[in-house]
Automatic annotation (TrEMBL):
Domain Plastocyanin-like: 18-128, 168-244, 329-421
Species lineage: Bacteria, Pseudomonadati, Bacteroidota, Saprospiria, Saprospirales
InterPro entries: Cu-oxidase-like_N (IPR011707), Cu-oxidase_2nd (IPR001117), Cu-oxidase_C (IPR011706), Cu-oxidase_fam (IPR045087), Cu_oxidase_CS (IPR033138), Cu_oxidase_Cu_BS (IPR002355), Cupredoxin (IPR008972)
Official protein name in the record: Multicopper oxidase type 3
Superkingdom, taxonomy of origin: Bacteria
Amino acid sequence: MKNRPNEVVYNLEASKFNWDIAPGKTIEAWGYNKQLPGPELRANVGDTLVVRLTNHLEEPTLIHWHGLRIPAAMDGTDVVQKPLAPGEVFEYRFVLPDAGTFWYHSHANETVQMERGMYGSLIVEDPTDPVFDGDKVLMIDDMKLNSDNEFTRPGWFVPRIVERHDGREGDTLLINGKENSVIDIAAGQTERWRIVNSSSARYFTLHLGGKEFKMIGTDGGLLEHARTLTEVLITPGERVDIAVGPFEEGETILLESLRYSRSTFLRPKRQQFATVNVGEQKASIAYLPETLRVIEPLARQDAAITRKVRLSVGPSLADGMDFLVNGDVHAHDKPVKVGELQIWEVSNTSLMDHPFHLHGFFFQLIEENGKRPEYMAWKDTVNLPPRSKLKIAWMPDDRPGRWMYHCHIIEHHAAGMMAHFELVKSL
Ligand SMILES: [Cu+2]
């Protein structure tokens, strides 16, 4: 709802509620405004977003604004904000600096709160965005439920270490909180689909029955040029915007995730998430320009490294395995100075994949295992396969405070694969 000009206000009420993921299949969800996902928030770039969060849960909570370049105090983690106790209200208020596909989620007791549904999308539009015939948000998730549709708790040692090692994956596959979703599109039309991987640990390789689609954007907004693909990997936390269509009337297309092996105990599978139904022919006004925007490079591939971040695993007596950053759990990294270009070498010495997420800033990938990346993009989450090494460049602008980076497999984050650092005016 619009209040003052350029101010967009939402109320989010966090609570427990019953949610039908399929006809007759009801779960006890936790979420916002009794919806799963929470309300789709939309505003224009430059608007001030005001979100009043009321906590009706029986435990503390917080909202993290994933991908948003906002002041540290609004980042919604427990290092910048006291979690809201039951009954408390907090008002998040910040200017939306960038157009793109973002999302919000709980950053408290995440392995429970996110798994149960505490997330939603935040779409920031720009009047100069390419024109499409439709714009849909698809939030990918999975849930691990028992035969009574209850969330399981891994009580025994073996299930517990498996869930800690693999991250929590379940066989209940959801798009926008529903199993076996049907996505309608008119024949002859081209739509923008904004895909958000809001799962705890699932690697989602989007596949539309082998049909070509165009990847037009990622975490930090539009790419420079569309990329024609038939599949794209979207790891937890990442977003990919695609242009889909035009299709023929009467077509039925499976929306699946292809098999991706990330060295888990659980065997990876090809799985169907939804069906795309192509309806009656309609006229199209969609137009995709050759150049979507220009992305200025922050640094050359050979730029000198200013910091090394090593993701690894090590043995743990109590839990089987610890998840480490530079050899430490829940690490404290050195401060970063405002205005000093950061060139980080992020490496993964473990034998499993980790999606690396930096809070509050976009980075550019400038080198991938010794090679120059294929295309330019602004990112806040990037996957590291086993034994891989990336170089990322990012500019800490004038938003001092406490920030963090972590693996976006929520169970790995909880098991220690994260670090705090202070952004300071002077060192
Ligand atoms: Cu991880």
